[in-house]
Amino acid sequence: SVSWETGIARAFHQYSNSTTGAVNTAWRLSNWVNLYYGPGEKWFLSGDFIRNTGWSYQGVGRHSFSMGQTVGYRFTPSLTLSVGHTNEGDVLRSNGLTSNIAIFDSTTSRVFTSLMVIF
Fold first, then answer.
1. What is the pTM of this model?
2. Which of 49, 51, 55, 86 could pair with 68 as two cysteines, CB 3.0-4.6 Å apart?
3. Per residue in 18-47, is it b (16+ CB within 10 Å) or e — as a string?
């Protein structure tokens, strides 16, 4: 299955900058695309891509992405084990011209294992 979501969020910070000096984001528009494939009752594959556009309190635009891939196995309807990978970052590299979107990056990629128990 394929799903698409769009959402807008407004943050309410006391200050326009964080304690580290980074500019806080006041508004964010997010678009999510999720792909899911479950060939049987036990195994599933999923992938998602999120594209964020944010505006700081000073009106400066910020653009980021996040993507992930997961392979999972359902032992029972309430017990699932999955392994996945994520990568996220700014849409453009520091030169402001070259795309930074990549499935894998040696500094920002993460591999994870998840055990989900529903009770």
1. 0.78
2. 86
3. eeeeeebbbebebeeeeeeeeeeeeebebb
